[in-house]
Automatic annotation (TrEMBL):
It comes from the Bacteria. Belongs to the peptidase S58 family. Signal peptide: none annotated. CDD domains: DmpA (cd02253). This is S58 family peptidase. SUPFAM superfamilies: DmpA/ArgJ-like. GO terms for molecular function: aminopeptidase activity. It comes from Pedobacter chitinilyticus.
Length: 390
């Protein structure tokens, strides 16, 4: 597999060239699939929120190991000593994530967010705790709330082998970087499946007009769920005859889960971050998901706004924060909806055919998908964004 940098719409994107038997892959908008009307950030990624970094460790071994770890680091300092406001929205609670209850209770995040597979969750959490305890300034810390999200990649991966190790976790954290984010079959998305095709990691961002604050919202997803794929309202899954409750002779995975990680630089309290996280679920439904019984679907939102960070130890008994008025939140709600939907689509468009654990899951067939989108007039809808102020 080769990754080539190309220039599209004024910013650099990665075009993945696979083997001759597979189609060229790219991000959704590389093929004229646009979501919403707002402008993206420079990289159209969660890392467009200043200071946010992403790192992956991808494990592909033999015929059955297809898994990994993805790290989302909120800022470049000691996250435990300088916590960020955060919130959780539970779409469907069939999940084994760790750290959610304290975030919901206290309204802050004190570690990087790590994503992995279901059975590796406690192993990854243990490595993350070790990492945090060893950070300078944390020598006297006796409690850490490790945030680890998961989806079940047992269809393509030997999940019972629990192949992720501490060194894999540290690699993902230590190599996390700003700028372009790898997508598709990488990190925690290596063995995932979504909407009848190969899923994976996807990301996107939106920047509000200056008159609405100029804030950035970035989203990263780990897609691993079922449904009936829709793109810009076009019934792609139905047209491709690949959807939940289709012909019983054709296997289809409905369960599996989805993690949605949301970052913003807007000054928000944890209350309003929860409201922001809720809106991501609109996009989840827009692409055809319905949160099956066995799909644990979670949104985690945090703000990097520096004045609202929470010090581990403070001499002040009262904490004053900046929080946008409720009437100012609608543009952010729109941004998270658009960015989440495009991130989910990017996870599909950037994924490649994958064999593992005695199975093969095909990637979304881009050529056929584009033909369907043209049929339903759902392609190249890129005229409105030019009219939106920057």
């Amino acid at each position: 597999m080769k990754i080539n940098a190309i220039l599209t719409m004024g910013f650099v994107v990665f075009m993945v060239t696979t083997t001759d038997a597979q189609e060229k892959r790219g991000r959704a908008r590389d093929f004229g699939v646009f979501t919403g009307i707002l402008h993206t950030g420079k990289y159209n990624a969660i890392t467009d929120v200043a200071g946010v970094k992403v790192g992956h460790t991808t494990l592909i071994k033999g015929d059955s190991v297809r898994t990994g770890v993805t790290a989302i680091v909120p800022h470049g300092g000691n996250v435990f000593q300088d916590k960020v406001p955060a919130a959780i929205y539970v779409g469907n609670g069939f999940g084994k994530s760790m750290g959610l209850s304290q975030i919901k209770e206290l309204g802050n995040l004190e570690t990087p967010i790590l994503l992995t597979n279901t059975l590796n969750t406690p192993l990854v959490a243990n490595a993350l705790i070790d990492y945090m305890l060893l950070q300078p300034g944390n020598e006297q810390v006796k409690s850490v709330n490790a945030m680890v999200g998961e989806t079940n990649d047992g269809g393509l991966n030997d999940i019972r082998g629990r192949h992720v190790r501490a060194e894999d976790v540290l690699k993902a954290i230590n190599e996390a970087k700003e700028g372009m984010v790898e997508e598709g079959c990488v990190g925690a998305g290596t063995g995932t499946e979504a909407l009848g095709y190969k899923g994976g990691i996807g990301t996107s961002s939106r920047v509000l007009p200056a008159s609405k604050g100029g804030y950035t919202v970035g989203v990263l997803v780990q897609s691993n769920f079922g449904g009936v794929l829709q793109i810009n309202g076009a019934p792609v899954g139905r047209e491709l005859n690949n959807f939940y409750l289709m012909d019983k002779s054709k296997p289809y995975k409905a369960d599996g889960s989805c993690m949605i990680i949301i970052a913003t630089d807007a000054p928000l309290s944890d209350r309003n971050l929860e409201r922001l996280a809720k809106r991501s679920y609109i996009a989840f439904g827009n692409v055809g998901a319905f949160s099956s019984n066995g799909s644990g679907d979670y949104a985690v939102a945090f703000s990097t706004y520096e004045r609202n960070r929470i010090p581990y130890q403070s001499k002040n008994k009262v904490r004053n924060i900046d929080d946008l008025n409720n009437d100012e939140l609608s543009p952010l709600f729109m941004a998270v909806w658009e960015a989440t939907e495009e991130a989910l689509l990017n996870s599909l468009f950037m994924a490649t055919d994958t064999k593992g654990n005695g199975r093969e899951v095909k990637a979304l067939p881009i050529k056929k998908t584009l033909e369907i989108l043209k049929k339903y007039n759902a392609l190249d809808q890129n005229t409105l964004p030019k009219a939106i102020e920057k």
